[in-house]
């Protein structure tokens, strides 16, 4: 009995530090595993790969569009010398603070040649595919080198962390959340800071990883930091002597990492929070997007056992199935925790996951789509700066990953159990994992770009310093086509408005908003698009439209042919600007003289 306890203590410390030697050597089969991850990622994204520039992810076409914008910005930085942290060709003439958005600069800049020569849609497909496969591969490496001795255990953990319901859900448009391959490396480096002689070298390496993660996704970094903070605190309470012995060098390493991060990312972070275009908070209340309690045991919509109607009731959107472990999966997570309960490291990880899971439930409990009056702890911290920038349900991404870690550790330890227990365990794992096998991401065909854009005919009408105004204007939900067209052309021309994050109405209201401040013309055209009713324009209405065109420095107005209620939109524009002309497959209104001589 004493020998078993000593073995558990040894494993406990190894898991907590990430220092355990895993496989005795890498085999050709491990390369096969990595290639299998890539093949599975291609399978998930296969429908997009068939026509990456022509198709749009149906699960979240809005966010597909905003990341096309991020990639177009990266292309402009590399090929046009555009400012790194500011984009002037969307939301003209004000522009967009790119650090205040998820600019994914660590991805968009290396892929700028792909975006330039092959199109932003190809870059989207590459990022989503390599994000899924790369995240699984990174976790497989961490499990294999430091946490488990069984290849099967490492494979289970990597598949769950890289292809579990959370990751597959975010692959419907969230390029930033799918690209989590740095997270295992950050976790590993943090845990190694307690080793002698690691403070400076380990701190610098950790700082560099943090900087890279900042330029992929800051929310993921925040979740990782909160999780590690709770884990370290819980482990230190359970292993006080060990914590006291290593605290000085651990804190020293964190200090070096912090200094490295601030030295390299201090200015970008200042630009994010203090430069023009900054904002605070979100355009929605924390109570709107929370984790439903019943979602823990349901199946995700994009799985072989998923039922769309059930998932839609229990989830915010197709990109936010952040739990959805399935009933047997939830049971096996509990079984794994019971098996590992004597490990302080496993208990600490479970505590961290539970804390973040409770946070994801929001200020009040929601179950089966019904918001109850039961208060939860998140109400106490929901308005803290930085926390108020997070979509609350995404805190559940943490327990989803920790579940994969616990399952891998349990699969590694099950070999110590009697044969009957082993058989039951593997039956349970099979019943848990098979129903969660992912299905290909759904797509829809996007509106084809007109010759007016693809052949560069717009250049005859839009000189430098002026804008092309598509109607419907680029907006979240109502102007998806216009933003997609502009970004697939790599923002070679400037357009007003757009889908991005910025202040709602500066300087009076700096609350975060998904669109530019309201203007009379956009509100008018949005009503026409929604109702299909042509308004009776007054001279005052025409004056407001002309004033907005002057504000936008418009050169030409272009009507999107496939827009909803396009006839009413055409009639409204004709009533305000005169008859259009047909050029390159679209109707346009040349307003250069109107803007050059607004008084006339």
TrEMBL record:
The chain crosses the membrane at residues 31-50, 117-142, 199-216, 222-238, 250-270, 324-341, 348-366, 386-411, 423-441. Keywords: Membrane, Transmembrane, Transmembrane helix. Coiled coil: none annotated. This is Glycosyl transferase. It comes from Actinoplanes oblitus. The lineage of its organism: Bacteria, Bacillati, Actinomycetota, Actinomycetes, Micromonosporales.
